[in-house]
């Protein structure tokens, strides 16, 4: 069961990482929140902590990181939804 949970968590974080891009501040904040929430939930699941708490903390940190970055310094291209 733990191996299945770990595999799902790693896959989710990887897919969110591939989707995380954006040119505007809003796009970067949104993609950062998604990546952070996925990573936080995965870390919570792996360590036996709270998955929801990890997702909330990771999402907040990711959104802040995405909103505070400059597109000239970090630019991964257009978001997948555009």
Mean pLDDT: 75
- What's the total count of β strands? 0
Ends apart, CA distance between termini: 37 Å
- H-E string: HHH
Task: Characterize the main sheet.
Answer: none
| Number of alpha- plus pi-helical segments | 3
Judging from the principal axes of the Cα atoms, what is the shape? elongated
Low-confidence segments, given as residue ranges, are none
Summing up helix and strand content along with how strands pair, one would put the structural category as: mainly alpha
Q: What integer value in Å does the Rg equal?
A: 13 Å
Question: What does this protein look like?
Answer:
Helix content is 72%, strand content 0%. By secondary structure, it is mostly helical. It has a domain at 25-68. Helix 1 (2-19) runs antiparallel to helix 2 (25-47) and helix 2 (25-47) packs antiparallel against helix 3 (51-68). The chain is elongated.
Please provide a brief summary of the model:
Helices cover 72% and strands 0% of the residues. With 82 residues, it is an all-alpha fold.
Write the layout of secondary structure elements.
Layout: H1 2-19, H2 25-47, H3 51-68
Helix pairs in contact: 1-2, 2-3
Short key terms for the protein model shown above:
single chain, 0% strand, elongated, mainly alpha, 82 residues
